[in-house]
Design a protein that fits this description.
This protein is 35% helix and 24% strand. The protein is an alpha+beta fold and 68 residues long. The strands form 2 sheets. It has a two-stranded parallel sheet. It has a two-stranded antiparallel ribbon with strand order 3-4.
Length: 68
């Protein structure tokens, strides 16, 4: 039975699943990703960004590119 997988948000909880997105599609499943932003910021590095250790672009990943 083929499934329609819907991922709401592209954050930590879905990161591993999104890395295997091609596997789901290759198995015939339909996949939808709903995200309010093109980027997800890794919250664990937020304090380092606020203190000037990291720049914003160093603590984020592009959700759409990950899903392609």
């Amino acid at each position: 039975m083929k499934k329609h997988l819907v991922f709401v948000g592209g954050g930590h909880a879905h990161l591993t699943a999104l890395l295997h997105l091609k596997d789901y599609v290759d198995c015939g499943h339909r996949v939808t990703l709903i995200s309010p932003s093109d980027y997800h910021y890794y919250s664990g590095m937020g304090p380092g960004m606020l203190s000037g250790i990291y720049r914003p672009q160093e603590i984020r990943f592009h959700v759409k590119k990950l899903a392609e």
